[in-house]
Specification:
Layout (H helix, E strand, L loop, with lengths): L5 E5 L4 H14 L7 H11 L3 E3 L4 E3 L12 E14 L7 E11 L3 H16 L1 H9 L3 H9 L4
Parallel strand pairs: 1-4, 3-5
Antiparallel strand pairs: 2-3, 4-5
Helix pairs in contact: 1-2
InterPro entries: PTrfase/Anion_transptr, PTS_EIIA_type-2_dom, PTS_SugarTrans_NitroReg
Protein name: PTS fructose transporter subunit IIA
């Protein structure tokens, strides 16, 4: 993960704007193809990615590897929460504050990345540190400690 793919205090109106902003950053760096953003938005309609992990809600939008050139993760800490549908119960909505947009070009590595992300989600203190970070470099260092 590089600090150019991190947006702190991002002000957006909805999940679509978050995905577009982070996806644009990935596209500009060459990590994803021009089809990536639309593919993520389309997938989110049928396979939502919001997670209520207790003290805060996160989302991990992603799509098929055919839209990805090189694996990476973009992250947004939102100024105000936006609504995502719940991954476990799509009839429910969650107010998300932290979004990890995943670009995975090797489906076999998806399990490893999701496992690392789950360790972030289970560490409430780490999530709070990410949320309150004042610089993208600080967030990068926090995530590097767990191999993201």
């Amino acid at each position: 993960m590089n600090s150019d793919l991190i947006a702190l205090n991002l002000e957006v109106k909805n999940k679509e704007e978050v995905i577009q902003e982070l996806g644009k950053r990935m596209f500009e760096k060459g990590y994803v193809k021009s089809t990536y953003i639309d593919a993520v938005l389309e997938r989110e309609k049928t396979l939502p990615t919001g997670l209520d992990i207790g003290e805060m809600c996160v989302a991990i939008p992603h799509t098929d590897s055919k839209h990805v050139n090189e694996s990476n993760v973009a992250l947004a800490v939102l100024k105000n929460p936006v609504e995502f549908r719940n991954m476990i119960d799509p009839s429910k909505k969650v107010e998300v504050m932290v979004v990890f947009l995943l670009a995975i070009n090797d489906p076999d590595s998806q399990v490893t990345l999701l496992s690392k992300l789950m360790s972030v989600f289970q560490n409430v203190e780490l999530l709070k540190q990410i949320k309150s970070s004042s610089s993208t470099e600080e967030v990068t260092k926090l995530l590097e400690c767990i191999g993201i």
